[in-house]
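Q: Please design a sequence for this.
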């Protein structure tokens, strides 16, 4: 190892030491940078010498190949945090586990339910970090980054192309330097309580005692008529699926049918669905941030009996589809604030919609993997977790090949049973 100003240089470093799966071969070169200027220098050096490189944070969403990486891995540990009012400026290498306590100390809340996720700020932006109904990208004001020419570029939230577990930074030549967040002033005890509650839920539902990369597969929407086996994909007693809707950009008048149900809750209570009034950005279907979203002004308050269908007219631009509705891979479900039903994962109960006669089903990989009886399935040291079917864990001595083979087997069984495959949430790095 050689140490320069804010830069550590390794040759032949074991990648298993730089990811949460604890697998992977060696990197030809590995740099650990501790400032944005150092990150800039290393990127420039790699480009000048035509060295392939990849920037990582804590490797919590990565599966490294057993053959290693024939290039340079750049580990971003730039860790400056600046707080001004309710705005937070954080370097891309700042750990979420360090950011949340810093915000708590200043009475800033909003992201505390992301506690316990081993991600950096940069990784949170790139991968669209989210948990327990909280999406990191909803708090992003802008991202300061380097473009392919090495120039500093400031991208506003709307330019980041955030989506479910993705962003424009997932692919391309941008290097994230710093992120500006806008959080909410809140009571410190409330923030702390939310944080501890999230940590407790993670401990109760996830296999935290074993190395993993979190959820291997990501949720997605699929046309209802393309599903081969509804008995597996739909797991409530009435045959209802996990479904959502998509808004048509060219449709001026939006009317949806909403049907409340909770596939994980036997207590079939009535509920209230709320559409909050605010000005809305048509292009991105996000609320105008100049509008007070906490004024308790509702355009529609609709009482829905369990399983009953009602229609809600969305032909008014003042209906906010992002504050109370959670954008999920292009579809939406509603956060039911007044009488929330929670499913086994702690998420808000889903709502069934039908937009222009097109019904989409939201596929939840863990539920399908569990329904197929794949918990405990093993390949070498890799195993589908018996605690959470969406996780593949390293039980000890697993190789990258063990994990990738197990992923292929799981997807083959899902394809056979359901007619589709599950998209990866993790990234395989070769």
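A: Design:
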């Amino acid at each position: 190892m050689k140490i320069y100003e804010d830069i550590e240089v390794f040759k032949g470093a074991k990648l298993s030491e730089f990811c949460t799966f604890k697998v992977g071969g060696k990197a030809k070169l590995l740099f650990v940078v501790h400032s944005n200027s150092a990150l800039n220098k290393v990127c420039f050096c790699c480009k000048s010498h035509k060295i392939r490189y990849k920037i990582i944070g804590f490797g919590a969403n990565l599966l490294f190949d057993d053959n290693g990486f024939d290039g340079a891995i750049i580990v971003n540990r730039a860790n400056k945090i600046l707080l001004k009012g309710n705005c937070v400026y954080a370097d891309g290498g700042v750990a979420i586990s360090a950011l949340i306590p810093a915000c708590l100390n200043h009475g800033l809340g909003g992201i505390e339910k992301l506690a316990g996720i081993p991600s950096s700020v940069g990784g949170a932006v790139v991968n669209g970090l989210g948990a327990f109904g909280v999406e990191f990208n909803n708090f992003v004001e802008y991202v300061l980054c380097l473009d392919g020419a090495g120039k500093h570029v400031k991208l506003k939230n709307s330019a980041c192309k955030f989506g479910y577990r993705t962003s424009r930074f997932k692919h391309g030549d941008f290097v994230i330097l710093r992120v500006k967040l806008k959080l909410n002033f809140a009571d410190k005890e409330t923030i702390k309580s939310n944080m501890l509650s999230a940590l407790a839920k993670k401990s109760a539902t996830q296999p935290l005692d074993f190395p993993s990369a979190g959820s291997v597969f990501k949720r997605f929407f699929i046309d209802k008529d393309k599903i081969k086996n509804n008995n597996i994909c739909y797991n409530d007693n009435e045959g209802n699926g996990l479904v959502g809707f998509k808004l048509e950009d060219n449709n001026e008048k939006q009317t949806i049918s909403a049907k409340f149900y909770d596939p994980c809750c036997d207590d079939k209570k009535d509920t209230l669905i709320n559409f909050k009034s605010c000005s809305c950005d048509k292009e991105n279907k996000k609320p105008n941030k100049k509008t007070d979203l906490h004024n308790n002004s509702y355009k529609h308050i609709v009482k829905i009996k369990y399983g009953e269908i009602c229609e809600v007219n969305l032909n008014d631009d003042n209906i906010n589809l992002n504050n109370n509705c959670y954008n999920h891979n292009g579809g939406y479900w509603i956060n039911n604030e007044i009488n929330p039903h929670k499913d086994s994962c702690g998420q808000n109960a889903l709502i069934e919609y039908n937009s222009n006669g097109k019904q989409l089903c939201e596929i939840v990989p863990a539920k399908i993997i569990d329904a197929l009886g794949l918990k405990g399935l093993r390949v070498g040291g890799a195993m589908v977790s018996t605690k959470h079917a969406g996780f593949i864990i390293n039980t000890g001595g697993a190789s990258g090949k063990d994990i990738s083979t197990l992923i292929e087997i799981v997807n083959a069984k899902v394809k056979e049973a359901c007619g589709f495959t599950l998209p990866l949430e993790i990234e395989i790095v070769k």
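Q: Thanks. Anything notable?
A: The first helix runs from residue 36 to 48. Confidence is low (pLDDT under 50) at residues 234-358.
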